[in-house]
Amino acid sequence: MQIGLVGLQNSGKSTLFHTLSKNSPNLGFSREEALVEVVKVPDERLDNLTKIFNPKKQVNATIEVFDIPGLRMSEDKKVKITPAFLNNVKNNDALFYVIRAFHDESIVHPLGNIDPIRDIKFLETEFLLSDLSLLENRLEKLKKDLQKSKDEKLKREFPVIEKCFLHCEKELPLRTLNLDDNELKILSGFQLITLKPLAIAINFGENSISTVEEEIENIKSKLNGMNVPIIPFFAKIELELSQLNEDEQKIFMEDYGIKESALNKILRTSYEILGLQSFFTVGEDECRAWTIKKNYNAQQAAGVIHSDFYNRFIRAEVVHYNDFIKYGSFSKCKEAGVWRLEGKEYIVKDGDILTIRHN
Ligand SMILES: Nc1nc2c(ncn2[C@@H]2O[C@H](COP(=O)(O)OP(=O)(O)OP(=O)(O)O)[C@@H](O)[C@H]2O)c(=O)[nH]1
Ligand SMILES: [Mg+2]
Question: Under CATH, what is the fold of the domain 295-358?
């Protein structure tokens, strides 16, 4: 899974990116080239399992974060999206708009002044126009092709593209359109931007820490109808904090009154908007967190570990993390009746510990 940090120039994307990728202090602040970093998803539950099983290694789930150079003013004094920018944006499973709310006269804002609502609407409009033009072209082409051929695949595609086109024409992003799995499959090759899950991360200056909740509520009320998670963060301070060790970080965050790190918020929100959850495998070799979609059944989850596990699936031994911690061992869980054997249709829950039986 890859999430993209998208926004206008100087909104704090690269600063945020660096707080997420603290394990790679050598990453440059590139203004020209997009950078991808694999970020370890912290999970206290996995840390606790590692303490219990003492395996040779712990493997956290990972998520890829893509830092995309922002939109800037071109020579004709306009801020325009470029094909290269769009390509970078399309290349993600979910998007975070990174929006500037900090004030600093010495740092240029390509649209002139600080106005988070305007910036959010600017991005939404540009992406909507991009989708609209793609859908319009596709619709024209389908109309022509369907006059000549009776291809079943094209016939099925037409109403889906038309439905999306009419939705975008009403200035509504595609993420607000109800689409079933078949329709989504038909659309999957087009990389429509407003169909991607979205969250908004707003970068506040340090003197906003005490008022940030109010400011976020204010922004939400002005974005009525835009039903996406909105999270505040403090890029500049958090970059400094991310250089410290975990204990120091906690102390300073408390001092500043920052309740949760940008890293945690971004990852938690990514799981939420992408509909993801984690399950665990444990043992002497490794304790590991795996990422799956929320409605995955036991066989699909097994397939994430290994395709052989999918093909040769027999049953899954299941204990939930909370039960395991409560009872302390698999045998105690068996005695308590919380250890179960489940078939392939079992819907895996966030925090399940699985052992796959296969032949
Ligand atoms: N004063 C202040 N400066 C900040 C804050 N956040 C980021 N900056 C500064 O703003 C400048 C731009 O930040 P970047 O993180 O490089 O912005 P960006 O969104 O990656 O910009 P582009 O890559 O050009 O799109 C840097 O000099 C940062 O140090 C903040 O909260 N307060
Ligand atoms: Mg940058």
Answer: Ubiquitin-like (UB roll) (3.10.20)
Q: What fold does the segment set 126-193 form as a domain?
A: DNA polymerase; domain 1 (1.10.150)
pLDDT at 27: 54
- Asked if 115 and 223 touch (Cβ cutoff 8 Å), the reply is no
Assess whether pLDDT exceeds 60 at residue 23.
Answer: no
pTM to 2 decimals?
0.90
Domain 2-43+57-113+196-273 fold is: Rossmann fold (3.40.50)
Over residues 156-161, the mean pLDDT reads 96
Cα–Cα distances (Å) from 259 to 51, 219, 227, 238, 254, in that order, read 26, 20, 23, 12, 7
d(CA 202, CA 301): 34
Protein residues whose CB sits closer than 6 Å to any atom of ligand 1 = 7, 9-15, 29, 31, 69-70, 102, 104, 107, 203, 205, 235-236
Q: What pLDDT is attached to residue 29?
A: 58
Taking the centre of ligand 1 as the mean of its atom positions, its distance from the CA of residue 183, in whole angstroms, is 39
